[in-house]
Amino acid sequence: VQPNNYSTFYDDQRQNWSIMFESEKAAIDFSKQVCIAKCNSSPVLDSVLYQDLVLGEGQGVEGGDSLEIAYTGWLFQNNGLGQVFDSNVNKDKLLRLKLGSGKVIKGWEEGMMGMKKGGRRYLIIPPAWAYGSQGVAGRVPPDSTLVFEVEVRRVKLVKECSGSDGQSVSSRDSPAPSPVPNSDGFTAD
Q1: Where are the domains of the chain?
Q2: Pick the CATH number of 44-156 from 2.30.29.170, 3.20.20.30, 3.40.50.300, 3.10.50.40
Q3: Is residue 71 flagged as an active site residue?
Q4: What is the separation of C-alpha 184 from the centre of its chain, rounded to a whole number of angstroms?
Q5: Does the predicted model carry a pTM greater than 0.70?
Q6: Active-site residue among 69, 105, 124, 125?
Q7: Is residue 143 among the annotated active site residues?
C-alpha cells in the first residue's frame, strides 16, 4: 500500500508493478481481497496474516506503547467474511490497550506491531492466535479463524525515562524534555 491510492507488488518473476485506484475505498477493498486470497491459498494458516489498508503517520508502534483502537471483528467462514461478532466503530469509546501487556489476543499483539497513528490494517488470525478451542460463548465458536479491521486513532509512546529535572523524556522522539501532554497523555487526533 502506497500513498494516494497506489499499491505496488512484485510478480513471480520479481517484476515490480504499481496499480493506481480511482478512490481510497477501491484501494482498501482490493487490499482486503488480497489478504483474504493469501489466507485461502495458504495450506495451513499458522501465523497472523496482515495487510495494511492505510499506512498512517509517525513512529511505528512497539511493545509497551499504548494505543486507542477502533475495530470490527468478523468470523472467517466459507473462505470469506462471515458475521460480525464484535465492533466498537459506532460506539463512543475506543479500545485502549498497551501492546505486549497480554490483555488482548496474541494475534492482535503480533498483527499491530509497526502500525502508525491513523493507520488501518486488516488482520486474519488463526484460532491458535485467537480464542483457540475455547471460543467465546455465544459469540465465537471454538477453533474460529477471525478477521479484524483495526484503526489506530491515538498513540502514546511509552519508551520513556525520567530526565534529570524529573520531566519525562521519550527516547524515541527527542533528547529534550517533552512538552506538557494533554490530559490523557495521548497525542491529539
Answers
A1: 44-156
A2: 3.10.50.40
A3: yes
A4: 22
A5: yes
A6: 105
A7: no
